[in-house]
Design a protein that fits this description.
Chain B: Keywords: DNA-binding, Sigma factor, Transcription, Transcription regulation. Chain B: Belongs to the sigma-70 factor family. ECF subfamily. Chain B: It comes from Mucilaginibacter xinganensis. Chain B: GO terms for molecular function: DNA binding; sigma factor activity. Chain B: InterPro entries: RNA_pol_sigma-70-like (IPR039425), RNA_pol_sigma-70_dom (IPR014284), RNA_pol_sigma70_r2 (IPR007627), RNA_pol_sigma70_r4_t2 (IPR013249), RNA_pol_sigma_r2 (IPR013325), RNA_pol_sigma_r3/r4-like (IPR013324), WH-like_DNA-bd_sf (IPR036388). The complex is a heterodimer of chains A (196) and B (156). Chain A has 196 residues and is mostly helical. Chain A has one domain: Butyryl-CoA Dehydrogenase, subunit A, domain 3 (Up-down Bundle). Helix content of chain A is 82%, strand content 0%. Chain A is built from 6 helices and no strands. In chain A, helix 2 packs antiparallel against helix 3 and helix 5 runs antiparallel to helix 6. The longest helix of chain A has 49 residues. Chain B has 156 residues and is an all-alpha fold. The chains are: A mainly alpha (196), B mainly alpha (156). At the A-B interface, helix 1, helix 2, helix 5 and helix 6 of A face helix 1, helix 2, helix 3, helix 4 and helix 5 of B.
């Protein structure tokens, strides 16, 4: 083998048959549909929950303002949960694909950092709103029962909330952060290659 | 400028760049198709501020870099199966080996060398990657050395 390998010739002999251009349009259509379905799914869950809350409101005629505030907070919690589970994230982070590699990588890192912050904040918000919401909501109905009923209703609810806050919330945030941090690290490593 | 013309003129070039990056024909086809979807969507807004080639290669390179997000998939370091060049089996094997060697380089080196082999001017490569021209020149020199070394090692 000589010292001068003709890489250019070897490179350009790598040809693939050009797929029909209609494949591109079909794929674009498929991607659009996927995004639309995802948004729809999120919206349907959201709407059903809100309808359910309004039904409770309308059917049980809560007397106390606490119940109404409680229901509102639970709805807010669900909205923030949907945002934190990325249903709406693609709408918040658009990338500019036409920029140079260096800017593109920096942009991706920024977006991932934003996502990390958003996930953490939203998830914490979700648990706070849900817990306070439930607490306020229960005041009216638990108040109608006996003392033992009240104690056990609040006891069980709080145990459940504590479990969620200390175990599930921490675990979920950790998992999300590890995944995002891993991507950020890799992006930063690649970005560093350009600076070398 | 018609999308169909761009598609016909650039498909092979874009596909090869993606292939150099991921070294997997199905995956490269996916990335190339995503690139053309973006080109198709952005074409009405394209204002000839840069050469169309530079613009296309920027989108293609960024789409390759986006693959970093996909955790489960790492570029293959096996010989690709699908590149067709039946005329000369020996050269076919060498061509596959070249793609394999490129896929083993660091990410940005893969893009730079692919553009160089695609005969993109160094000034354009600088515009695509965001590096200075002199930096590109130095990098290309180093990458070629590395590539030659790898290539020979495998050939032995």
């Amino acid at each position: 083998m000589s010292d001068n390998i003709d890489f250019k010739q070897l490179w350009s002999s790598g040809k693939a048959t050009v797929p029909d251009v209609s494949e591109i349009f079909a794929k674009a259509d498929q991607l659009n549909r996927k995004i639309r379905n995802k948004i729809w799914r999120g919206n349907i869950i959201l709407s059903l929950t809100i309808i359910f809350m309004i039904f409770i409101w309308w059917h049980y005629h809560p007397q106390l303002i606490t119940t109404k505030i409680g229901l509102t907070l639970v709805i807010l919690a669900i909205i923030s949960f949907l945002i934190s589970t990325n249903q709406m994230f693609p709408l918040l982070a658009r990338t500019d694909e036409e920029t140079d590699s260096q800017h593109f990588l920096e942009q991706m890192i920024r977006i991932k950092q934003k996502q990390e912050f958003l996930n953490k904040t939203m998830l914490t918000g979700y648990f706070i709103f849900l817990s306070i919401g439930l607490f306020l909501y229960m005041i009216e109905y638990a108040g109608r029962g006996s003392l033992i009923f009240q104690l056990s209703a609040y006891g069980i609810t709080f145990a459940w909330i504590a479990f969620n806050w200390f175990y599930i919330r921490t675990k979920t945030i950790e998992k999300q952060q590890n995944a995002i941090n891993d991507i950020i690290n890799r992006l930063e490593a690649v970005n560093k290659q350009l600076l070398d | 400028m018609l999308f169909e013309d761009i598609y016909r003129d650039y498909w092979n070039k874009v596909f090869r760049i993606c292939m150099g990056y991921v070294n997997d024909a199905d995956w490269a086809k996916d990335v190339a198709q995503e690139t053309f979807i973006i080109i198709w969507k952005q074409l009405p807004k394209f204002r000839n501020e840069s050469a169309v080639g530079t613009w296309i290669f920027r989108i293609a390179s960024n789409n390759c870099l986006r693959q970093i997000e996909r955790q489960s998939r790492m570029p293959k370091t096996e010989l690709p199966e699908q590149i067709e060049d039946k005329a000369d089996p020996d050269r076919e094997w060498q061509s596959k080996l070249l793609y394999k060697c490129i896929a083993e380089l660091p990410e940005t080196d893969r893009i730079i060398i692919s553009l160089e082999l695609e005969d993109v001017k160094q000034a354009e490569i600088a515009k695509i990657t965001g590096l200075s021209e002199s930096n590109v020149r130095v990098k290309i020199f180093r990458i070629k050395e590395k590539l030659t070394q790898k290539f020979k090692q495998y050939e032995r």
